[in-house]
């Protein structure tokens, strides 16, 4: 049977990491995969997470299964973090999932189960794994314009025009904050226009929020998702704890479905638990437990928020430094967008050839579409990147 298997193309983001590791040059700079790094290049365990882990080791007395939908303490705490009080809790059904990717996958599976003909509208560009999972599930994808490569900002007119094509029962996938890969985000007026259009068409919004706290702050980054929840009859939310809790390998995420009322919420909840059972049975618990411990303990939570805020401000400072350096070197404001973008990523607007030159001539690794991970920089490497970009003709 295995002889019938065909080679699968490597995931571009993960393959870049491999190429970086194999590069012997000491000056190499990794701006690839979306993993936070300190200026020293370390991905730390956050203080509050470490403290919770220590407590957990002391108090955990069993490794028996939790609930099929995940530990309610985790799902409740995450609903609070993401949705606040935007909707009544009994309208929200939840499952803990292996990472944000698990939540995305389960959301698509739910949609396919309900409406096998549903089309999923995705931003052009989007996180490549969205496309890969949809293709794997055999679901139809429709792109909507999102990024204006001339200005490196959102092409909102193009986006609205393309979303005019949605039909009742279609799904529109949106990034809640810190758009991956561009770093360009909608403002609240634009979110309101999107909501109005989706409601008029009867399409279902699905928000992927993997970087809450990395953009404008924990509350600010949740504004859009809360607005959609409060103003659309139904929605899906895939949230990740990988980045904002720094627990990447623990695979901790959550899928939330907001229903119109508690009765539909209950049925949806049963279906989500069913999907967990079919795909992997019980979701992983260790990371989820750490998250609920951090979120429900006032001291741990305050320390986590403080550390997350330092991470966010550090990335903002790097953005400003890079934009400033490029302004000085290019004598123009054309890189000002880097300081306007939010989150871990910016798409620089370099051509694939320029990206290649940056890798070959300067050992600077970024995704082929010129997405950089801001956290891969530090104050010393920012000027190196800026000079290299000018040298490569960006
Ligand atoms: C990224 O976009 O780099 C991250 O979400 C990591 C991944 O799994 O691709």
3D structure, described in words:
InterPro entries: Aminotransferase_I/II_large, Asp_trans, PyrdxlP-dep_Trfase, PyrdxlP-dep_Trfase_major, PyrdxlP-dep_Trfase_small. Keywords: Aminotransferase, Pyridoxal phosphate, Transferase. With 394 residues, the chain is an alpha/beta fold. The protein folds into two domains: 11-45 and 311-391, Aspartate Aminotransferase, domain 1, CATH 3.90.1150; 65-296, Aspartate Aminotransferase, domain 2. It has 15 helices and 13 strands. Strands 2-10-9-8-7-3-4 form a seven-stranded mixed β-sheet, sandwiched between helices. A two-stranded parallel sheet has the order 1-12. A two-stranded antiparallel sheet has the order 5-6. Strand 7 (171-175), helix 7 and strand 8 (204-209) form a beta-alpha-beta unit. Helix 4 (99-114) packs across helix 5 (128-136) and helix 7 (188-201) packs parallel to helix 9. The chain is globular and about 60 Å long. The relative contact order is 0.17. Bound molecules: (2S)-2-hydroxybutanedioic acid. Residues 13, 33-34, 127, 129, 180 line the site of (2S)-2-hydroxybutanedioic acid.
């Amino acid at each position: 049977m295995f002889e019938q298997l065909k080679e699968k193309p490597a995931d571009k983001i993960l393959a870049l990491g491999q190429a970086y590791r194999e590069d012997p040059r000491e000056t190499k700079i990794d701006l690839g995969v979306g993993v936070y790094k300190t200026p020293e290049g370390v991905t730390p365990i956050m203080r509050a997470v470490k403290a919770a882990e220590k407590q957990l080791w002391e108090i955990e007395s069993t490794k028996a299964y939790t609930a099929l939908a995940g530990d309610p303490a985790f799902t409740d705490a995450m609903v609070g973090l993401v949705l606040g009080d935007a909707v009544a809790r009994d309208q929200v059904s939840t499952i803990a999932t292996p990472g944000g990717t698990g939540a995305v996958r389960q959301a698509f599976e739910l949609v396919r189960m309900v409406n096998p003909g549903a089309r999923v509208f995705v931003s052009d560009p989007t996180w490549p794994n969205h496309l890969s999972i949809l293709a794997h599930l055999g679901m139809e994808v429709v792109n909507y314009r999102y990024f204006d490569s001339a200005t490196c900002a959102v092409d909102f007119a193009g986006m609205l025009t393309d979303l005019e094509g949605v039909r009742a029962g279609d799904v529109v996938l949106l990034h809640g904050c810190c758009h991956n890969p561009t770093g360009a985000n909608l403002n609240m007026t634009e979110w309101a226009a999107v909501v109005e259009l989706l409601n008029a068409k009867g399409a279902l919004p699905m928000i992927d929020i993997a970087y809450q706290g990395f953009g404008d702050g924990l509350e600010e980054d949740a504004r859009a998702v809360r607005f959609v929840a409060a103003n659309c009859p139904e929605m899906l939310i895939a949230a990740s704890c990988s980045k904002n809790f720094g627990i990447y390998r623990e695979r901790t995420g959550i899928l939330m479905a907001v229903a119109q009322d508690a009765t539909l919420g209950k049925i949806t909840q049963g279906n989500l638990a069913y999907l967990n059972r079919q795909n992997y049975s019980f979701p992983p618990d260790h990371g989820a437990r750490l998250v609920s411990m951090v979120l429900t303990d006032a001291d741990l939570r305050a320390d986590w928020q403080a550390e997350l805020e330092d991470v966010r401000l550090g990335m903002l400072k790097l953005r400003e430094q890079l934009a400033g350096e490029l302004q000085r070197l290019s004598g123009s404001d054309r890189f000002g967008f880097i300081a306007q973008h939010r989150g871990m990523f910016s798409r620089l607007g370099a051509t694939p050839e320029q990206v290649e030159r940056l890798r070959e001539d300067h050992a600077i690794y970024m995704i082929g579409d010129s997405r950089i991970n801001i956290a891969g920089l530090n104050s010393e490497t920012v000027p190196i990147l800026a000079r290299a970009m000018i040298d490569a003709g960006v």
